[in-house]
Amino acid sequence: MTTALCPGSYDPPTNGHVDVIARTAAMFERVVVSVVENPSKNPMFTSTERIELLRASLPDTPNVEYDVFTGLLVDHVVDRGIDVVVKGLRTSSDFDYELQMAQMNATIRGVETVFIPTSPAWSFVSSTLVREVARLGGSVDELVPAPVAAALKEKLS
Ligand code: PNS
Predict the structure, then answer these.
(1) What residue ranges of the chain have pLDDT lower than 70?
(2) 32 contacts 80 by C-beta, under 8 angstroms
(3) For the chain, which end, N or C, has fewer CB atoms within 10 Å of the first or last residue's CB respectively?
(4) Which helix (H) or strand (E) holds 35?
């Protein structure tokens, strides 16, 4: 059985994230979606909230499970018996950064990464921009799953 990992900040999850996770779940037998907990960052949503938002945004699929990790991604990959990391690519600048991380992860612990292109509809969407637009009163309803749109409104009200 091949297990894939979809890691990310997911602060908050966007339609682009959901698209990549759903397509990964259709390709691999088991998928772990892991939210990074970075003590030096101050996220809008706690890791528990981010996992709840991911669960609420994706169909209840038996081969998808959720987790939180801290520290190095490669240690989480090895600890959880994961075979491959899957990353969505939106732009060529994503590729430049992701390639560096993939090569580092392969070098330090032999962890392989597979890239899949983000659907064009979501190639401009990032959690950072979603947070900024929402904070400044713009609508992100078309860019994030409905549970995330509701959580943003509640958080910012
Ligand atoms: O959603 P993001 O912010 O693009 O996710 C990036 C993430 C969490 C996958 C990346 O920052 C990561 O792997 N962080 C864990 C720390 C780590 O392993 N750093 C070395 C990378 S080579």
Answers:
(1) none
(2) yes
(3) C
(4) strand 30-36
